[in-house]
Amino acid sequence: MSVGLQRLRDEPDVLRLGTAAKGDDPAIVDQAIEVDTRRRALLAEADDLRRQRNLISERIEQAVRGGADPRGPEVAAVRSEAAALGERIAALEDATEAVEAELEELMLRIPNPPDPDVPVGGEEANLLVRAWGEPLVHGTVAWQRRPHWEVAESLGILDLAAGAKVSGSGFVVWRGIGATLQRALIDLMLGIHVREHGLTEIWAPALVNAASARGTGQLPDKESQMYAVENDGLYLVPTAEVPVTNIHRDEVLASGDLPRRYVAYTPCFRREAGAAGKDTRGILRVHQFDKVEMVFFERPADSDAALEQLTGFAETVLRWLGLAYRVVILATREMGVTQAKTYDLEVWAPGVERWLEVSSCSNFRDYQARRMNVRWRPEPGAKPETLHTLNGSGVALARTVAALLETYQQEDGSLEVPEVLRPFLGVDRIAPPGS
């Protein structure tokens, strides 16, 4: 259960306030409390009846030891009384099972309360933390910068029409050195996080089962956004967070095993790529994109510092690429159900003159860990405790590529290749075909 039954009983006001701050109806907390009360009453009644049945069993044994006929009417009447209690207990167990399922469903829908330092509100309440680089704007050069889709198509590296023909709107085809650019970015990012940051690389499945999707919070909250393979009960991953975080589901890690810090590349699939008519040009909102994801398992006392470090790791990628970016704390209604605190990294795309989110770095505290039943043992022999999970994009490619195309485009129509990518691409400039 995401927030834990003990917290539901001990801190209902915290959960109500947190739910309201995220824009959800706090009545769900009271519904869960009411169902938990019913559950406890059923459990108490069943336990009382079991005690009564045990006493009856003792009476039968005493009667038989005292000489009563085991098949006589006196013992038969007592056995009948025990049988009636057994039927009532079985009915209570069935009722308890149904109530527990109802409670589980409600608990999964109670949001993770935001941290106290998270600003309350919607997008307007997002808080700027820091910025890096100088955003290029129209007028800083004598020629007009073009949006990324025009740059890519003029270079012959992006084919939106082919993507639509093969799969439908929201899918793209990269050609030639454009495809090489995708691989180069993935390799660069994984190299930074493995060699510079010491993370362990994971190559994870792109399909997950329902338990995995439920463990990280995609189910039931984001089911409509996921591609389902219904015949097999599987889902295409919306992010590597899902398979990588579930690696340790139902495990107890020793204190010496923490922290566990992973990085993985996966293609990512999302059915809802944005509101109709919004950002439909280019690659800002697509159904399939590539992303490098970092996942941390941390001791609870270390998770605040880990979030800052995780965010810094994502920033490193953007600095290596020379992209101007800013870091913002998301306000309560901008976060998802599962996050306690989130930093968004936004790069500046000078062609469309917009900040584009390329990474969300979040601390989930014990919310996901409870759903997945992943715990840690502070010392040998100690009772297992729930640990904290974090994740962050390190980073997502589609919008990063858009920002690269718009930042490094040249007046003559060519694209300067960022120095850090030149060893991967083997060129320092991409020119339009025939130039």
Describe the 3D structure.
This protein is of the alpha+beta class and about 425 residues long. About 40% of the residues lie in helices and about 20% in strands. It has helices at about 5-10, 10-20, 25-65, 75-110, 150-155, 160-165, 175-195, 210-215, 240-245, 305-320, 365-370, 395-410, 420-425, and strands at about 125-130, 160, 175, 200, 205-210, 230, 235, 250-255, 260-270, 290-300, 325-330, 340-350, 355-365, 375, 385, 390-395, 415, 430. α3 runs antiparallel to α4 (about 75-110) and α5 packs across α12. The longest helix has about 40 residues, at about 25-65. The model has no long low-confidence stretch (mean pLDDT about 95).
Q: How would you summarize the topology of this molecule?
A:
Blueprint: H1 5-10, H2 12-21, H3 27-65, H4 73-109, E1 127-132, H5 148-155, E2 158-159, H6 160-166, E3 173-174, H7 177-196, E4 200-202, E5 207-209, H8 210-216, E6 228-229, E7 234-236, H9 241-245, E8 252-254, E9 260-269, E10 288-298, H10 303-320, E11 325-329, E12 341-349, E13 354-365, H11 367-372, E14 375-377, E15 385-386, E16 388-396, H12 397-408, E17 415-416, H13 422-425, E18 429-430
Parallel strand pairs: 4-9, 8-14
Antiparallel strand pairs: 1-11, 2-3, 5-7, 6-7, 9-10, 10-16, 11-12, 12-13, 13-16, 14-15, 17-18
